[in-house]
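We now fix the convention by which a protein and its fold are recorded. Think of the row as the fold of the chain written in a discrete alphabet. Here is one such record, which you should read through line by line.
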Amino acid sequence: MMKYNTLIFDLDVTLLDSLDNVVDSINYALEKLDYPIKTKEEICSFSEDEIERLIELSLPDKTSYDKFAKCLILFKTHYSKNIKNKTKPYDGIIELLEYLKKNKYKIAVVSNKLQNEVTELNNHYFSQYIQLAIGKSSKIRKKPYPDTVLKVIDDLGVCKEKCLYIGNSKIDFEAAKNAKIDFIGASWGCKDKNVLNYLGVNYIIDNPKDLISILIEN
């Protein structure tokens, strides 16, 4: 009998390589406010999941809250219009999802992106594979609270012990821990692998096909 029958994925930097779009939109906002732009490497090095924090770190020190708020609005407006421009699944993700579907796994996404953005991206890239995609809304607390993960478990009608969460960050790890389900760290995005090692996760995988090996062994 399979140890796991439900896979819950983070979206950005786990399933989707979306960083180029994020960088473009951050730099668009910075340029509009006459601030220096940031390289992809700089933004990646911030190791943050929340766009608010990414923007805060991209702005010069001691930037006023009003400037921060304006930058955030500029980012959101630009990003919402360009959300799919450079975004694509990481190499091996579609093959992984095809394997999971073929082998009758239930598949879901939980993200701190806005719900309408999560729905749009899921419908565009993964609708034939992913049964449930939950994002940020006023109705549910975002990660690292366990609420979105627990909603997946409840909506899909699965046992918590049969669920496995795959993510790339401390927030993902904490969400899985708070929901009391097993976690695997995905290192193929821009996040520092040392962060996952520091967290002491049970497994760290370097490419999507490694997940299949773990599932076969369990």
Summary: Residues 19-81 form a domain with the DNA polymerase; domain 1 fold (CATH 1.10.150). The first helix runs from residue 19 to 32. Residues 69 and 213 are 45 Å apart (CA to CA).
